[in-house]
Amino acid sequence: MIVPSRTYYFPTVVEGIAEVAGAAGATLRIASSEYDDALEIRRIRELLAAGCAGLLITPTLHLADPTARLDLLRALPTPVVLMERMPTDSPPDDGLSAVCTDVVAGGYAAVRHLARRGRRRLGFLGRRDTATADAALRGYRRAIDDLTLVDLPGAVARRDSWDDVALADYAHRAHSAGLDGVVCLGDREATALLPHLAGAGFSLPDDLALVAFDDEEAANAPLPLTAVSPPKREIGRLAATTLLRMLGRGGDRAPVRMLLQPVVRERASTTTRLLRARMS
Question: CA-to-CA distance for 264 and 127, rounded, in angstroms?
Answer without folding.
Answer: 20
